[in-house]
């Protein structure tokens, strides 16, 4: 499996897609929705909610917000689905159950204190401690209404007490929170109250407040469990142990969004769009995405048996061995048109070696006769801030590339181009609604400096920087929004994005479903790529 995670405190990140549903509901879109009926979307979301498929429900609400941004009720529904998805994900995370829920209460309170301290000192905006505690109460009430939480934390015969606690914690009461000590004392008292009503693990109460103190701030901040922190470090290095697939929950199991090149999955014959139905005799239908995905995980060298159905409805069984997978951030390096000298590169993320990989790709293309380039950022969720700046500097030799502003030391900075060797060939950048964060830094710099032409649809609109703090209390991490970033001309990206110079929709762009970027660049099947090629081929012809 692959999770698109990126790292930083010294390594600051600009990432949108940390989760299968990644806060897209924060972004609005310029698309109209003539073919998307709101009642149909709501019906679909309600169906998912009735089956506790929170990720899928959140996805549908995200699409509804994209096409109906003025329907204010959609955001609260989306937020509730995200809360429930987060709860489900935590309780299906082995490291959460075995390493965090086994902490003593006092140690978990120490963790809560450490997170509150980090939020107070480093979050991009000033935060009131009382508000953070109130967010914890909200998280706890949501959890107390869910079977996955109640069955794990209440003794048999006392599970009805969860309803009494919801009523008790729903009553308005004054919170007198002025210090970290006050906040910790309040949560200690809440856990005592829950224990009196039959909760067998008071630490689980504290952990709901821990989660709320980060996730309640914005869609990008989060407390990272040991497993998620390990995944993050692996991904920033561009490698992990697994099958080499990106998956998304669906009614029947897990839909394969992407098969990584040179991976066990590719070698076994798995394809984009295949649906995984059974894993080692475990049927996935009706399971949440995170529960189903757990069956795919395992140690290096272990094997997993999959029952898979392809897009044509043909079913087959496969045996796949898990091993280390190298994730390349620069892919699909090819000449679109040798006669006109138009090259193509897809940038799937901004990770440690991206700039080096791009240098090699450009050198190879130039040897093949490239005189202009299509740089495809569609579907790119972001990555490392300094890497985005480094890539932009390869195209722009002077001036500001991006500015960041935050409260803490080191978070406000103007990143300027350094003189040196830059590429001066004609450039078109492709973007779409899933081009986010670091992708927007690059596209925004290219646009403001008029270094190239931006083609496609409006980008995601994520204008904040997250930092990763490894925590001392327990081996977990805090992903926290610590700054916002702005284009060279001072324009904000948040909920605005980058508008293309030339708007070109892809087929079925208006249907309200996410459309994956074509695995291979094909002019005949990709309207945006055709437009980019036409611009470059035409400009080169005119210059002859």
TrEMBL record:
Keywords: Hydrolase, Protease, Serine protease, Signal. Pfam families: PDZ_6, Peptidase_S41. Residues 229-297 form the PDZ domain. One of its GO terms (molecular function) is serine-type peptidase activity. One of its GO terms (cellular component) is outer membrane-bounded periplasmic space. GO terms for biological process: proteolysis; signal transduction. The keyword Translocase does not apply. The keyword Hydrolase applies. InterPro entries: ClpP/crotonase-like_dom_sf, PDZ, PDZ_6, PDZ_sf, Peptidase_S41A, Tail-specific_protease. Residues 1-25 form the signal peptide. Its EC number is 3.4.21.-. Coiled coil: none annotated. Belongs to the peptidase S41A family. NCBIfam families: prc. This is Putative CtpA-like serine protease. It comes from Kolteria novifilia.
